[in-house]
Design a protein that fits this description.
With about 170 residues, the protein is an all-alpha fold. It has one domain. About 80% of the residues lie in helices and about 0% in strands. Helix 2 packs antiparallel against helix 5 and helix 3 packs antiparallel against helix 4.
């Protein structure tokens, strides 16, 4: 168990996941806001005279509806998941799985901003676009990985590896 915990750089994985989250959930929404405003100022998109109330409600329900989905996915992933198959490469596979998990969670968190960009370019207001971006920032703040969660995930993976070694027919 200690071998896997020593091989996995928990602080490094945590900082890489936070950096990924900052890029996907802070930098990308700012870029999308800038692109949306730039495109709208150049005349791209529809005028704000069209009726977009239903579209706003549908996109807002979809954006807010992703919050419980992200929570369920995050909880099920961190609670019990076998991250790797090969014992010799356990630390590499654990780091890879954690990074894949981060990409998935942060990409799902980014979707409300993309919905907001679509809404804005179809003639919606900038304030509502910013509201969609705020949902993305909220998701990042709520669902960012915590150091304790990563440590407990690595410990569970190390325990599973030890149990496999102990009960495998080739051990002894």
């Amino acid at each position: 168990m200690e071998v896997l915990k020593r091989q996995v750089d928990i602080d490094g994985v945590h900082s890489r996941l936070l950096n990924l989250g900052l890029v996907l959930n802070v930098l990308v929404p700012v870029i999308l806001l800038s692109v949306g405003v730039f495109l709208k100022s150049k005349g791209v998109g529809l005028s704000s005279g069209s009726n977009l109330k239903i579209l706003f409600l549908v996109l807002m329900i979809a954006g807010v509806g992703e919050i419980p989905l992200i929570y369920i996915m995050r909880r099920s992933f961190l609670s019990a998941r076998k991250a790797f198959q090969k014992e010799s490469e356990g630390h590499v596979a654990t780091e890879k799985v954690l990074f894949q998990w981060g990409v998935l969670i942060f990409s799902l968190s980014l979707l409300p901003t993309i919905y907001g960009l679509v809404y804005y370019l179809l003639g919606g207001s900038l304030e509502r676009f910013v509201l969609f971006a705020a949902i993305t920032l909220f998701c990042f703040l709520v669902f960012k990985p915590k150091l304790e969660e990563i440590s407990s995930f690595v410990e569970r993976q190390a325990d599973k590896t030890d149990n496999q070694k102990q009960f495998s027919p080739n051990s002894s």
